[in-house]
Design goal:
- The chain contains four helices and eleven strands.
- 24% of the residues lie in helices and 31% in strands.
- A hairpin with a 6-residue loop joins strand 7 and strand 8.
- Helix 1 runs parallel beside helix 4.
- It has 187 residues and is of the alpha+beta class.
- The chain has one domain: Jelly Rolls (Sandwich).
- It is globular, with a radius of gyration of 15 Å.
Length: 187
Amino acid sequence: MSNDSIDFLVQSIEKSMVMTEKQFVYQKYYNFFDKPLLEKINSSFGDLEFEDLNRQIHLPRRKACGTNTLVKELTVMFRNVRVSEALGKKFGLDLVLSSVDLWVDNKGYHMPPHIDDQSIKLSLQVYLGKGEQPGTCLHFFSESDYFKKFEYSQNCGYALVNNENSFHSVEYPVVKDGRKSLYLRFG
């Protein structure tokens, strides 16, 4: 990953406002990666080896194996001190990258309102594909209608502080194979 890609990524984080609504603290991203990096990620998807995701083996979600070169390169990029410092400064948190996942969700995948594992301080998801796919919704309560939606749009996404009330879900079940995204966990 080039220094230009890291510079662009840090600028994406720095220019995005942190929003606070009720129990939620989040950023919304547009044009998160520079064009060369986004093209590299998407052109590499067909060559990746995939495996089931822990705790979701029964669902049609697969993640790229950590042994893939692209996953290793993205891990190095997101471990860059400039990236973690930019996120930490925006959210007022001391953050350490826990994991980098490249996901492909296929037809039928759905995740109802839930809260992430308490070991996660901040999650960050960037949508990589194009086409009609469900976004991510934020809910005031576990069973309530959503109040905020992050649309599934290529190179857009969000970062979300995880707390005891940060209920979020996949908007609706995936109807077409190939909902691609990058998902990062910071502890």
